[in-house]
Amino acid sequence: MLQNKVIIVTGATGGIGAATVKVLAQAGAKLILADIGSAGHDLARELAGQGANCKFVETDVSSESAVENMVSTAVSAYGRLDGAFNNAGVEHRGMPLHQLSVSDWNKVVGVDLTAVFLCMKYQISAMLECGGGSIVNTSSALGVVAWLHASEYVAAKHGVIGLTKAAALDYGGQNIRVNAILPGTINTPMVARANSDPALTANMKKLIDHHPIERFGEPREVGEAVKWLLSDAASFVTGVSLPVDGGFLAI
């Protein structure tokens, strides 16, 4: 489905990112894995051992120079850029708005929203040079609704949806599609940390009750949706915010 398509994945070593990387590799994509830290080297070696064509680029997506290097590395390595999954993100602090510091706000907005702008800025420039492409941005079900004590995260994820729509409008005539996914609660390390905290147990039960499918999602289920949006099977889909949320937004 994505045979020989060159695709960047940010946040590539996290729960959703790592699962999606594996889905895309199985679909035949050539991958640039981008994340902070060194875990990406291990993931790249694992995938290469399974026959995937991939490279890891250590990238702080909140840094414009790092993002520019990420995209130029992809183009230098493979000669083009066909797709991107802008997935890197950080969680909220879990406190009411008036208790947030400006640095708390800036950290979440910087990674969850401004970094998406930076990634698209350089990805789109590369795609314009090679005739088009497809971008998928990670928003959240909380990009549509709000949740208690998550104002900085809710604001950033709402912003991703607006940015996605604006970019889809700007570049639809140049064969660049831009869509967003809206995960519900997914079984990732972030959720595991919350589940292990007795103080959050009631909140996690409340979250399950908000998913009519009566469970949390699995990272691979998000990856499958990303694969479709990146592929030519979704060639008439742009500017869409696709829930992958077990019915969370249906309530």
How would you describe what is shown here?
With 251 residues, the protein is α/β, with parallel strands linked by helices. The protein has a single domain (6-185, 219-250), classed as NAD(P)-binding Rossmann-like Domain (Rossmann fold, 3-Layer(aba) Sandwich). The chain contains eight helices and seven strands. It has a seven-stranded parallel beta sheet with strand order 3-2-1-4-5-6-7, with helices on both faces. Helix 1 (15-26) packs across helix 8 (219-230) and helix 4 (102-129) packs parallel to helix 5 (151-171).
Question: Which SSEs are present, and which pair or pack?
Answer:
Blueprint: E1 6-10, H1 15-26, E2 30-35, H2 39-49, E3 53-58, H3 64-78, E4 83-86, H4 102-129, E5 133-138, H5 151-171, E6 176-183, H6 189-195, H7 201-209, H8 219-230, E7 241-244
Parallel strand pairs: 1-2, 1-4, 2-3, 4-5, 5-6, 6-7
Helix pairs in contact: 1-8, 3-4, 4-5
